[in-house]
Amino acid sequence: MVLSLATNVTAFAANRSLGRTNVAMERSLGRLATGYRITRAADDAAGLAISEGLRSQIGGMTQALRNAQDGIGVVQTAEGALGETTAILQRMRDLAVQAANDGAVGAYGRDIIQKQMGQLQKQLNSIATATNWDGNQLLDGTFDRSFQVGAAVGDTIGVAIGSAGHAMDAAGLGVDSIDLTRRGGSATAAATVTPAVSAAQGTPAAGKVSFAGDFTTPGTLATSYRNLAGTITYDGKTLDLGSVDYSGASTASDYLDALFTAARTAFATNGVPGGITVGVATPTSLTLTGDVPGAGSTAADAVALTPTYSGSTGVDTAIPAIDRAITLVAQTRAELGATENRLEHTIARLNVSLVNTTAAESRIRDTDMAQEISTFSRNQVLTQSGTAMLAQATHAPEAILKLLS
Questions:
Q1: In the chain, where are the structural domains located?
Q2: What is the pLDDT of residues 250-301, one digit of tens each?
Q3: Topology of 36-186+317-366 in CATH?
Q4: In terms of C-beta density within 10 A (0-12 exposed, 13-18 middle, 19 or more buried), how is residue 29 classed?
Q5: DSSP state string for 139-172
């Protein structure tokens, strides 16, 4: 051993070892304090990259779980409303059967039954209009949405309720024109519907419904007007053509005015602009024309501003019409029930995946506390012993004093 007074090599070596031990102990303290094995990229670069990807999956799956639960809420809301729709249709069928009992029910009785039928039709429309989720209408035929039920793009489940022009209201179910005061089957006029054109589809143009017949010749026009039957639906409002009061009318102008007045009342408008107008386009055609869609109008606006026509259904065909509506609603409810089951299975799968992915991320990122405490204890002992040895090394030059003396 070389004794040197200028340079204490032994102290330097002891200090270097003590420094390494102190760094290791500080890292152990950090891991024990935070609970994470990786507190910076230098601790485990590859592990950090993998764990961040797993964290993204965990966050996405956690939100997807909430999305799927919201989806179940939407489906249950729609299905619950359709349950009440079914109950109303069943009551309407009972009324139709009652009205068909011609031997015991006269004209007055059928008139009262029809009033009940009218209220039920309005309630069907009310349910279809009022059922919504966060402002999204569920039963008006426009609901066709996707629920994000996974962490990746494309992990979706689509839900469609009805379709354009086939809402779950009286018109969409085909029971809006039932007339139990009239015997026989369907009464349908020769009608032609021209859809409106929106700005998004081309040059805006008004929608219209035209009825064939002689509406100008005296002696013939009265029959043409009074034979108009069925209902016209426009912008969510309905006109029953069979209910138009032509009493006192004698000329073509009188009959046209009576029909226009009824249309203005039914559609709550005073005519152009803002509503439907009535006119005789040709001597053999009567036309009801809607508004022209404005600038920036969409395809949905064109659908709303297109008058639609439904023939009236008498007593003899009311029951089959209601049966078709009941079947349609039952099919829709069955589809919603199947979708709800699918969402529930999705939630179960997400829960399993979330647990497993979280466990994988924990194994990479989290501190093994038992192992780290053992490592910390070892470093603590090494620090104490290193400190003691450094103290001994600093006293080594004192031996030179003995030689000098």
A1: 36-186+317-366, 189-310
A2: 888 888 888 888 888 887 654 433 345 655 545 677 888 888 888 888 888 8
A3: f41 fragment of flagellin, N-terminal domain (1.20.1330)
A4: middle
A5: SSS--EEEEE-SSSTT-EEEEE-SBTTB-SSHHH
